[in-house]
């Protein structure tokens, strides 16, 4: 199962520099990043090539971080590509807790990373509906 790192960080200048510096020193490559501002603090979600090592390095440098399972769903990079996934989620009454996407090959494919409860059950449902889910190795190598 693919993992994302969620970091709880002070919302002040230099915090992202310290996070990225920590990962750089450990030779960890950031594959995707989202940032959510919530006033004095923020949440940073990272997809990295070595999530376990990254989580340990961040903890050793004073960051509160947690590894979370995500499903990396391959979709068409075209109008309606994301709709097809959202339609399936709606019909299956799947609630999304966190999500973000990125293009892999323009006009061909994209990846929608989604965090849900009951990850394994939802993974099975998604695959039964004909969607491909990337393995952790496939995702980290993009």
Structural features, described:
The protein is α+β, with helices and mostly antiparallel strands and 142 residues long. The chain has two domains: 2-68, VC0802-like; 70-141, ACT domain (Alpha-Beta Plaits, 2-Layer Sandwich). The protein has five helices and six strands. It has a six-stranded antiparallel beta sheet, sandwiched between helices. A hairpin with a 3-residue loop joins strand 5 (98-105) and strand 6. The longest helix is centred in the first third of the chain and has 11 residues, at 15-25. The chain is globular, with a radius of gyration of 16 Å. 23% of the residues are buried. The mean pLDDT is 92.
How would you summarize the topology of this molecule?
Blueprint: E1 2-10, H1 15-25, E2 30-38, E3 41-48, H2 51-60, E4 64-76, H3 81-91, E5 98-105, E6 109-115, H4 119-128, H5 136-141
Outline:
By secondary structure, the chain is α+β, with helices and mostly antiparallel strands.
Q: In angstroms, what is the radius of gyration?
A: 16 Å
Cα distance spanning the termini: 15 Å
Strand order within the widest beta sheet? 2-3-1-4-6-5
Q: What is the 3D form?
A: globular
According to CATH, the homologous superfamily of the largest domain is ACT domain
Q: What is the makeup of the main sheet?
A: 6 strands, antiparallel
Level-2 CATH architecture of the largest domain: 2-Layer Sandwich
Strand residues, percent: 35-45%
Which stretches of 5+ consecutive residues score pLDDT under 50? Answer: none
Mean pLDDT: 92
How many helices in DSSP terms? 5
């Amino acid at each position: 199962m693919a993992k994302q790192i969620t970091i709880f960080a002070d919302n002040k200048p230099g915090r992202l520099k310290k996070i990225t510096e920590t990962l750089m020193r450990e030779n960890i490559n950031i594959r995707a990043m989202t940032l959510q501002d919530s006033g004095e603090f923020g949440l940073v979600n990272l997809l990295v090539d070595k999530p376990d090592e990254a989580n340990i390095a961040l903890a050793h440098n004073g960051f509160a971080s947690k590894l979370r399972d995500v499903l990396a769903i391959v979709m068409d990079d075209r109008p309606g590509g994301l709709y097809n996934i959202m339609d399936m989620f709606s019909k299956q009454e799947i609630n999304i807790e966190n999500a973000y996407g990125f293009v892999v090959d323009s006009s061909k494919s994209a990846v929608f990373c989604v965090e849900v409860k009951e990850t394994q059950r939802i993974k099975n449902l998604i695959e039964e509906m004909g969607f491909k889910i990337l393995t952790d190795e496939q995702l980290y190598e993009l």
